[in-house]
Amino acid sequence: MSRNVLVALTLVGCSEVNLSNLAEGNDGIAPKIEVTPNFLDYGMVEDGAEVVRTFTVKNVGGAPLTVDDVTLDAPASYTILTDITAVLLDPEGTIDVDVAFTPLLEGENVGKALVLSDDPGSPETPVDLLGSSTAPMLIIDPNPLDFGSTAVSCETSADVYLVNVGLETLVIDRIDFGSSDGAMTLTDPNVLPIALDPGLSTFVTVNFIPTTVSSSAATLTVTSNDPRGPQVADQTGRGEYGANNLDVFDKPVDPPVDLLFAVDQSCSMDGHAAELSAAFDSFITQINTVTAGWRIGVATKDSGCFNSGFIEATTPNYQQVFGDAVALGSDINPNYLFTEKLFKVVDNALQEDGGGGCNAGFLRAGSMLHIIFVSDETEQSGTNWNTWLNGYLGYVTDPALLKISSIVDINQACGDGSGPGGYDDIALSTGGLVLNVCNSNWANYTDDLAALTLQGLDEYVLTDTPDQGSIVVTVDGQQWVTGWHYDAATNAIVFDEELPEGAHIEVEYGALICAN
After folding, report:
1. Could you report the per-residue pLDDT of 181-228, keeping only the tens digit for each?
2. Residue extents of the structural domains in the chain
C-alpha cells in the first residue's frame, strides 16, 4: 500500500470517530425517544365531562434516556395527569402519560403536549391534541366597551350582548354590575334565569351620565353554567364639557329700566292710588341711586295707552306727573271696561309699543322690565295668568329681565273681598313682590320694589348652562371668588355687591351641552 493511500484511510477513520462522538455517548451508543401515538383525539365531549387519553414514551436507543418533563402548548381544557419529571428510561423502557380533556372552550380545542428529553435528535417531541366541546359558552360583546368622551350631565347608552356560542343551552342565573363613581348604570330587561339555546343572545344596556370631568369605569359580571365560570366585561368612559365658554359683559352706564304700572280705577281704589302717588318719591329716589336710565308708563285705560305718555328722569316735575297719571280716571269712566282686567290692559299697553302705537318707543332692547299691578279686586281677564305671562315674556330679550309685582288684596279684606285672583301667582312666578293693598303700610315697602327692579341690572345671563363648580368670574381683570352667586332659575351670574358703571365682566365656565 502506498504512503498516500494510508494517509487517506487514516483521515477517513479520524472523521468517523469524531462524528460518532457528537451523536453518541462515550461508548458510542445514544438514547432515542419514541412516542406513540403522536396524536390524541378526544372526540366530542359534553359539558362538565372529563376524557383521558394516554400516550407512551419509550427509549428505543442504546443508552439510558432522561425524560425531563411533559409540558402543554394548549388551551386550559387540557391537563397532564402523570408526573414524569426527570424520569430515567433504560433501553426498551417505557412510561405511560395520561392527558385529560375537560372542555372549557367552545368548538375545537387544539393543542400539543411536548415531551422534553435528552434525545440529541429530538429534545422536544410533540403529541398533537384535539378535542371538541358541546358545552355552553358565554361571550359578552363588546368587551371592553369604551364610551369615549361624553359631555358632562349628558346621557349616552350602549347595548351589551350576551351570546351563547357553545353547543348546549346556556343558563344565565345572575347579572351583577358595579360602577366606580356611579356615572354608569345598567338597564336589564331580562327576567332571570335566562335560557339561551346555541347561537341565541340577549342584551343589557349600559348607561353613562358623567357628572364631572374625569374617567369612569364599570364592570359587568355574568354568572351562568358556562364551565369557565363567571364572565367579566369592562366598560370605560370619560366626562368632558360640551364646550368651554367665555361670556363677556360690560355693565352699561345708566342701564335701562322700564317700569309699567297698571292701576285699577274702580271707585274703591281712590285712596290706594293716592298712597301710590305718595310712595313714589321713595321709590324713584332708590332707583336714581343706581341709574338715571329709568322710564315709567302708567296704564289705566282699556287701550293700554299710557296716561301722560312715558315719564323719564328728564321729565319736568316727574313726581307730580306720576301722581296725576295714577289718579287719572279715578272717577270711573263708563268706557273703562277693563279696569279690573289689568292683565289685558298690560297686554294692550305692550302691544301699543310697536308699529307706531300710542306707546311706541317705550321698551328698549336689553332693558329690565318691571310690571307692577295695583288693584283691590280679583283679576278678571278670564284667562289663566300663565297665558298672559307667556305673552309678556315676548317683550324682553331674556326671561331674567322680566319682573312682575302685585299690590293687591291678598287676604280678601278690602275692595269687594274677592282676593287677588292670579295677581299673586304671576308675581311670585317671576320672583316679584306681593304687597297687601288693604294695609296702608304697604307704602313702606316701596324701597323693596325699587331694589327688586334694580336687582336685574347686576344679573348677567350666560350663553349656556354651566357646571357650577367650573365658573370663574373676573371683574376688570380681577378674579372674584365671592360677591356673586349663580342663579340656576335664570341661568345668570348675580352680583351681590354693586358693580361700578362700565365694569368689564368675564365669566369662564364648562358648558353642559349635550350633542343632538
Report:
1. 999 999 999 999 999 999 999 999 999 999 999 999 999 999 999 888
2. 1-30, 31-133, 138-240, 257-460
